[in-house]
Amino acid sequence: MEVSSNNKISGIFIVAALVLLGVGMLFGVIGGVQYMIPGFLKDSFSFEKARPLHVSAILFWIILAASGALFTYLPKHTGKKIWSPLLQKIQLGLLLFTVLAIFISYFMGWFGGREYWEFPPILSLPITLAWILFIINFVKSLGGFSKQPVYVWMWMTGLLFFLFTYLESNLWLIPYFRSNIINDMTIQWKSYGSMVGAWNMLIYGSSIYLLDKIGGTNYGRSGMAFGMYFLGMYNLMFNWGHHIYTLPTYGWLKQISYFVSMTELFILGRIIYEWKKTLSVANRLGNHETYRFILAADSWIFLNLVLAILMSVPGINVYTHGTHITVAHAMGTTIGINSFLLLAFAHDIFSGDQYSYHYHPKGFNLGFWLANVSLLAFWLSLILSGILKAKWQMTPDAERIPFGEMMIKMKPLFVVFGVSGMVLMMGLLILVVNLVRNSKRV
Amino acid sequence: MRPIIKTIIITTGVSLFLIYSGYLYSHLPRGEKPLNTLADQGKMNWQKYNCGACHQVYGLGGYLGPDLTNTYSKKGADFITALLKGGTPVMPNFHLDDSTIHTLVSYLKDIDATGKSDPRTYTINSDGSIQQ
Ligand code: HEM
Q1: Residue B1 contacts A where some CB pair is shorter than 8 Å
Q2: A143-152 average pLDDT score
Q3: Interchain CB contacts (distance < 8 Å): A and B
Q4: Could you tell me if residue A41 is left (phi over 0), alpha (psi between -120 and 50 degrees) or otherwise beta?
Q5: Binding-site residues, ligand 1, Cβ < 6 A
Q6: Separation CA B96–CA B126 (nearest Å)
Q7: Distance (Å) from the C-alpha of residue B77 to the closest C-alpha of chain A?
Q8: Domain ranges of chain B
Q9: What are phi and psi of B123, to 5 degrees?
Q10: Among A12, A116, A192, B113, which is least packed by CB within 10 angstroms?
Q11: In the prediction, which pLDDT does B102 show?
Q12: Surface of B (22-81) touching A: CB under 8 A
C-alpha cells in the first residue's frame, strides 16, 4: 500500500539529521588532528570539547534519521497517515532546540553529564519528552498490534527500550546509585549497552521493511525473521556486561553476558549463508543508490560482527579493552552499519515520487567509494593502534615507556587515522550535499 | 510462528529483563555505600570539566589520555595536584583552585580503592572467562 500524501515533516527530520552528520564529522576531524598533532588547539578548543561535539552530533544524526525513516515507512505500511503531524512537529522542535542548547553548552565548556551525553543533565528533560511524544504518535498511527510483521515489533522494541535505557542512564543523579564507582559504572554500562541495541532495532526494522518493499518479498512475516528478532532482543537485554568485563563487579553478570554475546555467532552464520541470495537480489535491482548502501552495510556488518564477537570473549577483551580497538568497534558499527543503512533510507526516501530527484551517478560513485575505501583504512588504523596499545599495557613496568612517548610512537598510525577520516568526511559530504539538494518536494 | 508463541517469548524476555534490572538496582554490586561528600564533589567536578573525554576509568572513557583508575596509588596526591596546576603538553591547564583540585584528588583516591584496572592483573581461564 503506497500513501502518496507522505508528510513533509518526515523529510525535514532526515534533512536536519544529514546536516548534523556533516557537522559531526567536522568535529571528528578536529579530534583526529588532535591525535596527529598533540596539543592542537589545546587552549581554545581542546579534545574535551571536540569529542563530545563530535559524538553528540553523530548520536543525533542517528536518532533523527532513524525517526524520519520510521515516520516515512510507517504510513506506507499501514496505508494511513501519521496520527498527529502536530506532535511530530513538537518532537522535532524539542530535539532541535536541545541539540542547539547542547552545542552552545559544549562550546562554552559547560559540561556536567557523562560519556556520550556530557551536557548539563537538565537537557535530558526535553529529550525524554520528545521521545514520549514519539511513542504516543507511533502507537496511535499504528492502530493495533495483532498480526504485525517483524519490523513493527522491532520499531516498538526500539522505541520503548530507548526510553527505558535513557532514563536509566540518568539514575546517577540519585546519590544511592553513584556513591560507589563500581555500582555507578555497572548501571551506566547496563543502560548504554542496551541503548545501542535499542536504536539498532529502529534501524534494522526499517531495513527489513525496505528490503521487503524493493525485493517484493515477505521476509518480515517469516519465522526466521522473528527468530532473529528474538535473538536480537535477548542480546539487547542481557549482553551489555561485555562492556565491563574488567570492572570488579558481579562475576555472574559477566558470565550471562559472555554466554548471550556468543549467540551472535548464529547471526554471523546466517549472514554468510544468505550472502548469495542478497547478491542475486542486488543483480536484479541493478545499481540503485539505496541498494548499494545496503550491500555495503552488509559487508561492514560482517567485519564488525567478527570483531565484536572476538571482543566479547573475556580473555580477549582483557587485551582489547581500553584501547583504540574499542573505538574501531564503535565507529566501525556506527558508520559502516548504522550510517550506511540510514543513508540507504535517505536515498530511498528522496527518490520517492514526492521529491524531485536528480541524481548524478558520477558524484554518487565518487562519494560512495571514497567513503568505503577510506573507512577500511580508518578502521584498520584504529585496530592496529589498539594492538600496539594492548602490547604496551601488558609490558612490565620496568620496560614500559611513559604514556606520552607511547602515543608519539603511534603517530604514523594516527596520521593514517586522521587523513582517512578526512577523506571519509569528504566522501560522505558529497552524498550529504546531494541528498539535501534533492530533498525539495514537488 | 504462532502468535501465542511470540507472545510467550516476548513476555518472558521482558519479565526477565525487568526482574534482572530490579534485582541489580536493589542489590548494587558493592551494596549501599554512604556518600563520601568530598569524593562526590570530585566526581561532579570530573564531569563538569569533562576529564572523561580524554581519560578512562576501568578502561572506559576517551582515549587521548591515560587510564587514571590507579594513578592515585602509583603516583600520589602531590604529583596529581602539581600536574593539574600546570597542565601538560596535551592536557590543558584548567586553572582550577586548590579546593577543586582537592576534590578531584579525593575522587581519584576513592576510585583507586575499589580495585585494579591493570590488564596484567587478570588470569584467563581455559573457557575464555577471566579472574582477578
Ligand atoms: C559517520 C561518521 C562518524 C560516526 C558515526 C562516528 C562515530 C563515533 C563514535 C560513536 C565515537 C565514540 C567512540 C567511543 O566511545 O569508543 C567516535 C569517536 C571519535 N571519532 Fe568518530 N565518527 C564518525 C566520523 C569520524 C571522522 C570522519 C573522524 C575523523 C578523524 C572521527 C574521529 C573521531 C575521534 C578522534 C573520536 C574520539 C576517539 C577517542 O575517544 O579517543 N570520527 N566517533
Answers
A1: yes
A2: 92
A3: 182
A4: left
A5: A 25, 28-29, 31-32, 35, 51, 54-55, 58, 326-327, 330-331, 334-335, 339, 418, 421, 424-425; B 62-64
A6: 48
A7: 19
A8: 1-30, 37-119
A9: -110, 145
A10: B113
A11: 98
A12: 24-25, 28-30, 32-36, 40, 43-44, 47-54, 56-67
| CATH pick for A263-442 out of 1.10.150.120, 1.20.210.10, 3.30.70.920, 2.40.110.10 | 1.20.210.10
Flag whether pLDDT at A146 surpasses 90: no
Of the listed ranges A246-255, A267-276, A368-377, the one predicted with least confidence: A267-276
Look up the pTM and report it. Answer: 0.96
For A384-418, what is each residue's pLDDT tens digit? Answer: 999 999 999 999 999 999 999 999 999 999 999 99
| CB proximity list for B88: less than 8 A, separation 6 or greater | A404
C-alpha grid cell for residue A10? 518526515
**Chain A nearest C-alpha distance from B86 (Å):** 13
Note whether B119 contacts A246, CB cutoff 8 Å: yes
Q: How far apart are the first and last CA of chain B?
A: 44
Quickly state the pLDDT bin for A442 (edges 50, 70, 90). confident
Counting every residue, how long is chain B? Answer: 132
Q: What is the pLDDT of residue A217?
A: 84
State the Cα–Cα distance between residues A299 and A288, nearest whole angstrom.
17
Probe ligand 1: pick from B54, B57, B63, max atoms within 8 Å of CB? Answer: B63
Model pLDDT, residue A2: 45
Q: Is A359 on the interface with B (CB under 8 A)?
A: no
* Protein residue with least CA distance to atom 25, ligand 1: A28
Q: What is the CATH number of domain B37-119?
A: 1.10.760.10
Q: Is residue A141 within 8 Å of residue A75, measured between CB atoms? A: yes
Q: Using 50, 70 and 90 to split pLDDT, how confident is the model at A267?
A: confident
Closest CA to A382 of A116, A59, A31: A31
* A2 burial type by CB count under 10 A (0-12 exposed, 13-18 middle, 19+ buried): exposed
Q: What is the pLDDT of residue A3?
A: 47
A13 DSSP assignment? H
Rounded distance between C-alpha atoms, residue A37 and residue A16, angstroms:
32
ipTM of the complex: 0.97
Of A187, A245, A322, the CB nearest to B67: A322
> Cα(A133) to centroid of ligand 1, in Å?
30
Q: Which of A109-118, A203-212, A264-273, B95-104 has the lowest mean pLDDT?
A: A264-273
Q: Give me the pLDDT at residue A25, please.
A: 98
The ligand 1 atom nearest the CA atom of A29 = 29
- Taking residues A1-6, report their average pLDDT: 47
List, in sequence order, every residue forming a beta bridge with B124; answer none if it has no partner. B130
pLDDT the model gives residue A81: 94
Tell me whether residues A247 and B58 touch, CB distance under 8 A.
yes
